[in-house]
Amino acid sequence: MTYSIVALDRATGHFGVAAATFHLAVGSLVPHARAGIGALATQATTNPYYGPRGLELLAAGAPAETVVRRLIEADEGRDHRQVHVVDRQGRAAAWTGPATEGVTGHLVRDGYSIAGNKLRGESVLEAMDRAYRDGSDLPFAERLLTAVVAGEAAGGDKRGRQSAAILVAGSEDYPLIDFRVDNHPAPLDELRAILALSAGEHYLSFRAQLPTRARPHNH
Hints:
Strand content: 25-35%
Radius of gyration: 16 Å
Largest sheet: 6 strands, antiparallel
Strand order of the largest sheet: 7-8-1-2-9-10
Low-confidence stretches: none
Helix content: 25-40%
Structural class: alpha+beta
Mean pLDDT: 96
């Protein structure tokens, strides 16, 4: 019921996830990312424990393929799951269980992975892949969102639309971007509007005042 992209931006070292679905609050359980460590998305019959466990494995140095293998080996419900991961080296790996429903699958590329289930067609993943590749000149968050928007334009979730989210882990222990549209008739349009607002002076000045590793007493 979800389509998503997980990626490493090699230019900045940032990790990101963008996702959309015909379900409430996709951003609450699907996307996971940690600065300097990696990113993953858990979907289909979502296993929320894949997020923290996967990030722990990545933090310990496990490559993406090992992370996916260890997550599904420990889960008797693996056949109903879909998970994809990118590690700090940009290696990506994915699992789509044989019991996931509808048109389902994944595309693993250098530095990113795309996955979806209950799609209107395989063209959804192909459109996302093409849009992400063609968007190399865009800011990372916009590039992620552009890929998901392309997936929706190609059919997206066969049941419709309800929520969307984008998560970017930058250089701090808190997210650089964590924007969610939990219940909206056009969630990706709303998410794009929020992302545009985040480039405004008011929001940027707020971010500039936050404590950082280099300036822990910033205010």
